[in-house]
Amino acid sequence: MMQGRDCTKKPVESEEQALFGVGASPGIVTARAQVFKRRTSRAAWRRLPPEMVEREVCRFQEAVTEAEQELQKLRVTFADDLSDALSIIDSHILMLKDRMILGRTIEIIRQESINAEWALAKALGRVKKKFETIADPYIKQRFSDVKYVADRIFGLLSGREDDVLTDISEKVIVIGHDFSPEDTLHMQAKNILGFITEEGGVTSHTAIVARSLGIPAVVGLENITCLCASGDEIILDGFSGRVYLNPTPVQLRQYREYDKLHQSFSEELSLYIHLASETPDGHRVRLAGNIEMTDEVQAVLRYGAEGIGLFRSEFDFFSRELLPDEETLTRTYSELVRTLAPQPVTIRTLDIGGDKFSNRLPHNGIRLDLERNPALGLRSIRYSLRDPTLFTMQLRALLRASVHGNLRILLPMISSSSEVRCAKGMVRQIMNKLDQEEIPFDPEVSIGIMIEVPSAVILADILADEVDFFSIGTNDLIQYSLAIDRGNQYVAHMYEPFHPAVLRMIKQTVAAGHRRGIEVSMCGEMAGDVVSAPVLFGLGLDELSMRPSAIPHVRRILRCSEHRQLTELGRAVLGCSDGGEVRNFLTRYLPENYPQEFCCS
Ligand code: PEP
Ligand code: MG
């Protein structure tokens, strides 16, 4: 099998003892474990005499004020460049004052004449029930933030030491049911080398902070607090999510070598963060970043992305408890566009329906959750045109943000030119309205479409007349053209980016776009795969947009390719008759032509 030299190869021969969680923050550490058993913040129940009720409310309010002061103190302790972490602390400060905790607890103390700890636990129980009904995993994870905030107040009410990490002085890997983002912030100062939790996912705030501080982490490893004891030796692999308990000397040696290899490889690649994305003979391809949440913009900047090629705006939109309004969206988009200016920021309008956020939509007579075939249903632009309330609000916010830099609006899942005309008609109407309201916007703002449905490829020449750019979404294009559900493990082996039909569709789209003088980008996962990169350069794409950390490697591959050689490679793969043939060809071609980048195993 062919692979990039980025150590994605299984590092340890025997996986017998490996436990598998989710790699939430990259890096490898070997150290002793310090296990924190689950904190049972059980409140004792106390009935209050009527004259004590208001005093109890005051005691609760004082604890909330103290919690806020602690968080404010924490806020000033951390440097300005930890903006991800700071925004999380800010959100926790806001949560302290939110009705769901503050208001509800006070209400319960008064209505039931009970102590603050019990009332707080009860209020938290109700919030938990609400979160449990939410299907979307990202929103579901936000309950952990509410719990961190409640735990902090609880600790102050009961006089319990709140910081679970206070006693640590050695360099250890900490293991717990869950850690708060604030706990994670303290880890760096306490020399904690990494952490493993039973709960959480890659999008939890704890994971975000870990990534921004560079603390390796594995999350979602069930029962790890029972499987492991303090003092056990551990290998934590934050890349793959593997954890080894009491590893053998052979495993330790292999992991040390793997770690060294990885570190020197990352150092090598970091040289490419600030270099131009061009071949030695001057052919340029823009390498941009994909993001789901605005706080990922730090990574976009850190890895030298030349703009944002895809902001999946639906994640930001539905990450809040309440749907955002136009002002909130305008602020979010303006900030993003301003931060990246003059580089382009491509914001895709809501891609909802299918497997995403169906249950968060206002019903308005439409029940997406009942669709029999959601991937082929009222998804994405189809939903936006059928019920334009959210779409209109988002377009207004996007247009208002367009004056702050280089914004590109991207319409998802286009399958016919009438959809494009309809959406553009709405944009024109909104522009007229903004004009009347004397609200500034950029009348020349770029509007592009995702090419992710086979009919859009076939009609690419017609569609190219309607828009300013194309962005190929291979994740869906492969799903729809090969009839393979991208989320179904039984057909996952058939999901083949190098299928000749896919390669031809990419080429056809590029050709149609270039004939009409518009840029063609790719933002599907294929764009960030180092094995695909030379092929995609060879097929003539103008921009590849990917997870930001993949950019330096893809840039190095571009910088050691001749344009002519790439074009020949593009031609050669288009001549293959199936995906296996393409892969066999690349298995020979890549190590021969890029010995520094590719190896065989
Ligand atoms: C795609 O389909 O390739 C794409 C980038 O969009 P998403 O993965 O959000 O469907
Ligand atoms: Mg898609």
Give an overview of the whole structure.
The protein is α/β, with parallel strands linked by helices and about 600 residues long. It is built from 24 helices and 18 strands. The strands form 3 sheets. Strands 2-9-8-4-5-6-7-3 form an 8-stranded mixed beta sheet. Strand 13 (about 405-410), helix 16 and strand 14 (about 445-450) form a beta-alpha-beta unit. The protein binds phosphoenolpyruvate and magnesium ion (MG).
Sheet with the most strands? 8 strands, mixed
Range of helix content: 40-55%
Total number of strands: 18
Spans of 5+ residues with little confidence (pLDDT < 50)?
none
| Beta-strand percentage range | 5-15%
Biggest sheet strand order reads 2-9-8-4-5-6-7-3
Ions, cofactors, ligands: which are bound? phosphoenolpyruvate, magnesium ion
Gross morphology is globular
- What is the helix tally? 24
Give me the Rg, rounded: 26 Å
Query: What is the residue-mean pLDDT, rounded to a whole number?
Result: 87
Ends apart, CA distance between termini: 6 Å
**Strand-pairing-aware structural class:** alpha/beta
Compile the SSE list and pairings.
Elements: E1 2-4, E2 18-20, E3 22-25, E4 28-36, H1 53-77, H2 83-96, H3 99-112, H4 116-132, H5 137-141, H6 143-158, E5 172-176, H7 181-189, E6 194-197, H8 205-213, E7 217-219, H9 224-227, E8 233-237, E9 242-245, H10 249-270, E10 286-291, H11 297-302, E11 308-312, H12 313-317, H13 326-340, E12 344-348, H14 381-386, H15 389-401, E13 406-411, H16 417-436, E14 446-451, H17 454-458, H18 460-464, E15 469-472, H19 474-482, H20 500-515, E16 519-522, H21 533-538, E17 543-546, H22 551-559, H23 563-574, H24 579-593, E18 598-600
Parallel strand pairs: 4-5, 5-6, 6-7, 10-11, 10-17, 11-12, 12-13, 13-14, 14-15, 15-16, 16-17
Antiparallel strand pairs: 1-18, 2-9, 3-7, 4-8, 8-9
Helix pairs in contact: 1-2, 1-3, 1-6, 2-6, 3-4, 4-6, 7-8, 13-15, 15-16
The chain binds phosphoenolpyruvate and magnesium ion (MG).
